[in-house]
Write a structure and sequence with these properties.
The strands form three sheets. This protein has a nine-stranded parallel sheet with strand order 1-4-7-10-13-16-19-22-24, with no helix packed on it. An eight-stranded parallel sheet has the order 2-5-8-11-14-17-20-23, with no helix packed on it. The longest helix has 18 residues. By secondary structure, the chain is mainly beta.
Length: 184
């Protein structure tokens, strides 16, 4: 009788564990990461992270005052930076979700394929986006360090409002260019 209860308990616990969702691991990056596969990545406040050919099954979050420099990376989820010192993405990188860079320093997004939106909001240093393919919209709102947008292709709108100075650039293709982006 006692062994039956033990077997039943073991079976019940195994069933609960098997049905529990697997939690993605978060890698904290402070330094350089090469061509490896990771789940989610977090750049801690004030840290610098350099990614080179890194594959991420989840998302990337960049902390306050942190720097991210990513070359030839693949991110299945989103790239989010709030209060980051700098975010740089280059080298034919891909992002399966959106890229959102808000209330930080500068940013440079070059030759990336972004399935969602590319958003810059309330940044205080130079931002740029060049030769990107954006599945959604490119939005630049209330940035004060200067913005340059060149040769980007969007499936959504290109929207620029309240940037000082007004964004510069050209050769961008979008079904609709609004406000400060009209001439770009």
């Amino acid at each position: 009788m006692r062994s039956n209860r033990l077997v039943m308990s073991t079976v019940a616990i195994s069933a609960v564990l098997a049905s529990a969702p697997a939690l993605a691991e978060e890698f904290s990056c402070s330094g350089a990461v090469g061509a490896v596969a990771l789940d989610n990545l977090f750049v801690p406040d004030g840290a610098t992270c350099v990614l080179d050919r890194t594959r991420l099954n989840g998302s990337v979050v960049v902390g306050r005052g942190a720097t991210l420099r990513a070359t030839s990376v693949s991110i299945n989820g989103n790239l989010q930076a709030e209060g980051a010192a700098f975010v740089g993405v280059a080298g034919y990188s891909t992002v399966g979700g959106s890229v959102q860079i808000v209330q930080g320093g500068g940013a440079a997004i070059e030759r990336a394929r972004i399935k969602g939106d590319l958003q810059f909001e309330s940044n205080n240093s130079a931002i740029s986006a060049s030769a990107n393919i954006v599945g959604g919209s490119l939005q630049a709102f209330q940035n004060i360090g200067g913005a340059a947008f060149n040769h980007n292709r969007m499936n959504g709108n290109m929207q620029c409002k309240e940037n000082v100075p007004a964004p510069t650039g050209g050769g961008n293709r979008s079904p609709s260019k609004e406000d400060q982006c009209t001439r770009l």
